[in-house]
Every structure is written in C-alpha cells, then in structure tokens.
Amino acid sequence: MIEGYALIHDEREALHQRTLRVRFPEGFATLLFLQHGVLRHGSDGSIVTGPALCFWPGSERPTLTLDAGSATRLLGLSDTIILDAIGARSESVHLRMLVERPFTAALEEQPKIPQVEMMFSWFGYELNSAHLQSPMTLSAYLRLLLITALRVHNPEPIEKGGEQTNILRRFRHLVELHYRDHWQVSAYASELGVEYERLHRICKRETGRAPAELVHERLIAEAKARLENSGHPLKKIGADLGFADGSRFSHFFKRRTGMSPGAYRAIVSRPAGEDLSELRRNFSDWP
C-alpha cells in the first residue's frame, strides 16, 4: 500500500551536468528539494538556483537536469497523500491552489533550509522503516513542507479576469468550510454577495463545472479518502459527511461513482499491484 502512497528518491551530488532518471508511477506528483546548485527544467531550460522547493503535478513530467555540484532529493506523491496533507480546513484551499500547477519556492531565509532538510529526512525514515510507514505521519510531514513552500512562494499576479478569479477562490474557500453542511448553491452565492447566475457562469468558465458539481466532487473526494484510509462503518462516514442516514450517503455515492461505498472499499482494499488508477479519485477531479 505504501508504495502507492508516496516514494522518496535521493540523488547523489552531480559530478557533471546530467539528467535525472527518476521514474515515479503514472499520476504521481513530484516535490523536489534542490539543496544546492542549479536545476534546469522544461523544454526552455528554465533555471532554478538552490536551495529551493519545486513542484510538478502528476499530469506533468518535466525534464530535470542538474548542473555539476548540485544535489537534490525528490518525493513522488500520490493524489491520496496530497489530499490527506491538504486536509479539510478553511486554510486548506490555499494549499489546494498551490499544488494545482507547477511552482518554485526559493528558500532564501536560512532558518527554513535545515527545517526542510529535517522534514525530508523524517519523511524518508518513516517511509523506509517497515515497522513505521504511517500514512498519517507521512501526510503530516508533507503538509509542513507545503506550508513552508506556501509561505515563501510568490505566484505571478493574475491580471486578466482578476475579479472572477477572486470570486472563485472565495467560493472554494467556503466549500472547504461548508461542503459537509450541504449548503445549496444559492447559500454560497448569498455569502459571496453575488447572484446565483454569476457564480454559475464563473465556475463554468473557469473550471468547466457548475458550482453544485464542484461541491459534490469535493464530497466524493472526501468520501473516497475515508473509505480508503479508515475502517469506520459506512453509516459513520456518511454521518461525518453530513448525510442524514447511511442509505442517503450510499445513494449519493453510487449516483456519482457508479458503485456503492461498500463495493468501492472492497476494490481499493485489494492487494497492491492491481491497476486502480481509474478508480481512485484524482486530485484534479476537484479543480
């Protein structure tokens, strides 16, 4: 199970310029810690000078080249550990938006560098110790790494459509707070101070999904995470997600996924090695 959750790869210090030969499973995101030196990536050979944290979503496989004297550590991250690390708190929306696209976060402040080095070391020790390998611990380390990146990352300002983007960001912030409360879309629009039709247009234009679809997909993503990672009865999971009873939860889940919660849990609990990539939720399912 743990290999389908996360992987760590340490690169030896480059004696000359060389391309990294790291092959994480299909769909795994990459979090790279450039300890020192220079990293070149992409077709245009964009340059990153260490120390820095760099991230690419699972949909991207950049060409990574280290200059001589450079050293790096890499994490391969499944959608499951990313969702676990982000969590479901009001501030989670900022982490969610951070990992939607590639980013580079320069670690210019010296106190952050040993902290990141230590978190990578702890992550590796937990992952590689057969008697440990706790998903809760690994996701906690990843959350700290993402928060560190968030605090130093300065994304490029969005000049065009800034107001619409702000409304969408606020909407998603509210969804993180209230998706388990089963708010109607009209309640979200009222809280945002916009008309229902305007919120609907913005969501469709920016994400290709209606507001209700986004809320439902967030619920499904959380339901799948709990079915995969907890042994709680279906009734309790449904209650935790705001459903009045287990049958309503099962009906909602089956209507959205094509199978019952119990059937989903049975399939994802099969021994590792089976191809479940089409079944497990994808981080990009909730844009």
Please, could you describe this protein's structure?
There is one protein chain. This protein has 287 residues and is α+β, with helices and mostly antiparallel strands. It has two domains: 2-152, Jelly Rolls (Sandwich), CATH 2.60.120; 162-285, Arc Repressor Mutant, subunit A (Orthogonal Bundle), CATH 1.10.10.60. It is built from eleven helices and nine strands. The protein has helices at 79-86, 92-98, 112-128, 135-152, 162-178, 185-192, 196-207, 211-229, 234-240, 246-257, 261-268; strands at 6-11, 18-19, 29-36, 38-41, 46-49, 52-56, 64-66, 71-77, 103-106. The strands form two sheets. Strands 1-8-3-6-9 form a five-stranded antiparallel sheet. The protein has a four-stranded antiparallel sheet with strand order 2-7-4-5, with no helix packed on it. A hairpin with a 4-residue loop joins strand 4 and strand 5 (46-49). Helix 1 (79-86) crosses helix 4 and helix 8 (211-229) crosses helix 11. The longest helix has 19 residues, at 211-229. The radius of gyration is 20 Å and the shape is globular. It starts with 5 loop residues before the first strand and ends in a 19-residue tail after the last helix. 28% of the residues are buried. Mean pLDDT is 86; it is low at 156-160 and 282-287.
